[in-house]
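Self-study notes.
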Amino acid sequence: MPNETTLLIHEKLIAWQVACALLRLVCEARISDARLRDQAMRAAQSACLNIAEANGRFSLADRRRVFAIARGEATEAAGAVQIAAISGACTESAANEARRLGGRVAALLTGLIR
């Protein structure tokens, strides 16, 4: 991990850090359904990327718009893991953790949008 003086501006956001934890969880969930795994991965990656992009924007309206997209992607990623668990394609514990992390990312992003 870089020291505090070399962090990019998005790396300081707790929302970014939690979104990265959600992405790691999706990777570790080992979802056996390839389509669902791909959907969860793309959504989790997009949440992280949109947080980084939003924090690089200057216009407040533009930042809010991109943070809102990131919020939707994070909840989609969490939902995909939950659906995988319901379908028997991953563990219930992965789904519970995805629900927790997805909800936390969504709450943090809601604060940044306001």
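Second protein, same conventions, sequence then structure:
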Amino acid sequence: MSRLENIRGAGLGLKRELIPQLQAAHGTSLTASIDFFEIAPENWMDAGGRAAKQLAWLTERYPMVCHGLSLSLGGPDPLNEAFLKRVGNFLETRRIPLYTEHLSYCSDGGYLYDLLPIPFTEEAVHYVAGRIRRAQDILGRRIAVENASFYAAAPISEMDELTFLRAVLEEADCWLHLDLNNIYVNSVNFGFDPHAFLHGIPGERIVYAHVAGHDREAPDLIIDTHAQDVIDPVWALLQEAYALYGSFPTLLERDANIPPLPVLMREVDRIAALQKTALRVTGEIAA
């Protein structure tokens, strides 16, 4: 599988409050490590006025990816095909090459405003894979699904998360949006080895990745808030993932408690540095 050619390097999740800082710093050394941005299509499809102009300014200068929030791939409600067609139009209009979603669900007769775990069963594999294939047919392109974070196990599960993830990716023939923080969060919440999980993923399906921070509520409970700095064990997982699968595009998520751009850039720069080291090890760039 070839990865998307214009999505590479280190990225940053786009927040509207950051845009004036990004515009002021464009072309300077401060933002030199930013290669792409990520947006939620739900937050931008209907944008007008100043917001639409800001998005146009960014899409003219940077590649973008879309990471959805509300498709509810594992939910009991019918797949929202009208919404998908709106997403497809947005992707085409803004020339955005990639759309990803969570391997979870967030609706049941209405939106639940949380990402809930899918039962890890053979029946759910077929159900979710079929919905992913239908989404790909509507959009006319392959999508990626992200391994999600959870706080309670779904009932009636027949397999572990990794087995379920691999089965869905294979049957749907879609890409993997790898979230290293979610692997770590679930490893603490459910007591498994995150490194063994990482070794088991189908690396050839990785199209890009997330790193993020979280809040630890108890020794055995982490909440995936994206409101703190990335911690060392997550950086270690990212470095190990590059060693296993080669350097792939990686984005910093920060959704709350957002510091000024120079502070955020320290973590984006760290992603870029780890990628450069990985490329040197593989001989893809000169030492």
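Instructor comment on the second fold: DSSP finds ten helices and twelve strands in the chain.
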